[in-house]
Amino acid sequence: MLCSLNEIRTLATGAARGAGLPWGVAGEAGRAACWLEARGLAGLATLDGALDRLSAPDWRRGSPVPEGAVWRGEAGETDGLLAGMALADRAHRPLPFASGGALVLSGVRRPLLAVPFLAGVSGVCGARLAVSLGAGTPVIGIGPQSVHESCRALEGMAFAGTVRIEAAGANAAPPDLPRLDGGIPVDGEVYARLARRAARTCVPESAGSRARGAGAGDPVETD
Amino acid sequence: MSRDDRTGRRLGLRPPETVMRLARLGAFHQTRLSFLRAMLRRIAADGYRFGYDRWEIGRDGVGAAVYAARGPERAYSLVCFARDLDPALRTDRVIAEAWDATFVLYDGIPGDGEMDRLRANAPKQEAGRYRHTDLILSRANRSARLFDHVVDCLAAGRQPEASRLDGTGYVMRTTAVYGNGKFGIADRRRYAGRPGFGGPFRMEMLAVWMIRQFVADLVNHLAREAGGARAVPLDPALRRRLGIGNSTGLGLGPFIVNHPALFARWIECRELALARVCAQETATAGSWREFRQWIARARAEVAAWTVPDPVQADKIARLAADLDRLDAFAAGLGPAAAAPWAGVRDWAAERLSLEGQELTVSLLIEPHGGLVDDLAERMALEEAEMPPAGFPGRVRDLRGLVEDGYGWALEPDYASPRAQARFWYVSANKLEPRLGERWEEPGAELELPLATGRDIAACHRDLRKAAQDEHLADFLLRHPEHRHAVRRLTDPELGPYGEIRDNLVGADLLPLDLLRCKLAFFGATRFDPKSDRWLRINMFCRAPYPDELQAEPPDDWIYPRPGA
């Protein structure tokens, strides 16, 4: 099915909230999924996969401990969404890659979800970022609000042992993925799974709500 | 907008603690910055031409029609599907599954294939699926009081009585106007950069205005089919008295809370318009005369604004008295007085009801199109795809910001049941926002984050407990539950008018005020509350039709002319 970006954002936010994330975190999950889909990347499917873990009561243990040059979760692994948020939140602080070093995220689940946040960090730093998953893997270039096609290597990736982030060199950046303005193809099964999660945020009708609802009263208009 | 404009330092904007109270926002009236008026001015200036592309409506009023709006660069089409609905199925509620007419505003001119697609979907409304070439989705029902009466009169060869038309104000009313990506239609982003459509809700307003044309044509068509040679078309002067009705419920309310930076822009532009007018040290005789004329026209409008709701009826009665006093004050003041516009504003603030004060704002702005109309083009704000990266401050900074600027949020005792008597939620049945009674209905654990004051207060409690030099980013890592509140507090676009300074879940909340405020920005008139959470309105009443737009000023119609 073809979806609008607003639908995608609303669906993803609702699903993340339905999975139990706080509204503020769910809102950022929704935006991140939408950002990815707007560039033809599998934001919804990746979020759907991530929510399996993020719906656990101890989801906060998937946040990284943001210290030093290697960030890892309390329990070893970290979630791409939470790692991305933690990085973006600290974009104004001296991150290792801002001074020529590298920051390594260790044990990242669904690393694609970190990309939209890294694009924001790139904007604050004023430099493109180069993300690599280890020797022999392509380097993914991320600019302010854009990403290179090599990012497709992260689609469908449930886990990356390390995600290394550095400032990119001054070489001319290859063209990034174009931004789509709607009519985004979405897998029907993914949509349905997320819609089921989002439905958990809705309140069923009750006698009280029926009595007080908008337009309550005689359902047949006489005006 | 200049920095002085934004801060209001030189212009003397009304302070947010005055403006951003819900009772005042719920007393707003349309102004010349309102979206439907700005849309009409712009398409008139751009020389849009209008015409039928198809008229395939049968004798029974069933079929399709397409109206084309051709502008300097692009064409848009209103695709209309009409049916003859069983009156028992006619309901304005969002639970409805059938309507008298359904509409899509289409990007371009649809061919036969696209018409087939739209015919298969538009009559189903929310149950259909749409594409990004479909810009706006809407539907309308006939007025049981007026539609058949008007058709019968015309079919019999006579015009309906003007007073009867005025009593309702429309022969059809829309029950939903969907934009920005709903059900697969185009995201606003698709057209927000096009000339003339950058302002808020311009495409929605264009759709409603073209629907009004369709409704007038449908009435004439049905009269002709029923009356044959005896039938007469609706007199153009009577036709002008008809707007498009609209029924609106709680679904509209959360928008201005969920989009605080955009809402702040709307308020700021309205306040700037008032401030620019009031900053003038003198008035010309012509502008003062025009102001007095607008007072007279507003008196005629208010005299015709009758509603069964006793609370609103009482407000209207006081408003009528306020306008009498305003007229007398203006007659005594005269254009030669020093800073006369500010004098009117300040006099009204001290002596008139909230309705009177806010209608005075509209009337002060009205004669000053040359001074303020540019602001209508600045009321949009395209939200960023991702929130800005980085929380540069520390706990003490945010705590200071809350304590300095959010006293209204900290004031209520949220432990009191009355302070949290309500909760906003999404209905499982219709996926629309609703308002529940927290202590009487299930579902409060699923509430929407619209209790802005309460949530800021909760965040403030934890800010007080935290180490004051802790980085905000670290605070949020420990307190992800406050992330939505911190985002609002640190939004650089929010500005002073971003927050409604009232408790949006308190027992005293009147949700109608949220709806009224937004509808006033749309340009609606004749607010007619049907409960504390839904109302009917009129849009485009007395506005020129597409075939009249180039023949007269596009923006001299909002209140009746003398003798009309």
Task: Explain the layout of strands and helices.
The complex is a heterodimer of chains A (223) and B (564).
Chain A (H helix, E strand, L loop, with lengths): L1 E2 L1 H14 L4 H15 L5 H12 L9 E2 L4 E4 L4 E2 H10 L12 E8 L5 H11 L3 E4 L7 E4 L2 E2 L11 E9 L16 E2 L2 H12 L2 E2 L3 H6 L11
Parallel strand pairs in A: 3-5, 4-5
Antiparallel strand pairs in A: 1-10, 2-3, 5-9, 6-7, 6-9, 7-8
Chain B lengths: L2 H5 L8 H4 L2 H4 L9 H11 L3 E9 L5 E8 L4 E8 L18 E7 L4 H10 L12 E9 L4 H9 L6 H7 L1 E9 L23 H26 L8 H5 L2 E6 L6 H4 L1 H19 L6 H19 L6 H24 L6 H12 L2 H12 L3 H4 L22 H11 L1 H4 L11 E6 L5 E5 L14 H14 L6 H7 L4 H8 L21 H11 L2 E5 L5 E5 L25
Can you give a write-up of this model?
- The complex is a heterodimer of chains A (223) and B (564).
- Chain A has seven helices and eleven strands.
- Chain A has 223 residues and is an alpha+beta fold.
- Chain A has one domain.
- In chain A, the strands form two sheets. In chain A, strands 2, 3, 4, 5, 6, 7, 8 and 9 form an eight-stranded mixed sheet that branches.
- Chain A is globular and about 65 Å long.
- The C terminus of chain A is likely disordered.
- By secondary structure, chain B is α+β, with helices and mostly antiparallel strands.
- Chain B has three domains: 160 residues, no CATH class; 219 residues, no CATH class; 96 residues, no CATH class.
- Chain B is 41% helix and 14% strand.
- Chain B is built from 22 helices and eleven strands.
- In chain B, the strands form two sheets. Chain B has a nine-stranded mixed sheet, sandwiched between helices. A two-stranded antiparallel sheet of chain B has the order 8-9.
- In chain B, α12 runs antiparallel to α13 and α14 runs antiparallel to α15.
- The longest helix of chain B is centred in the middle third of the chain and has 26 residues.
- The two termini of chain B are 39 Å apart.
- The model of chain B has no long low-confidence stretch (mean pLDDT 94).
- Classes of the chains: A alpha+beta (223), B alpha+beta (564).
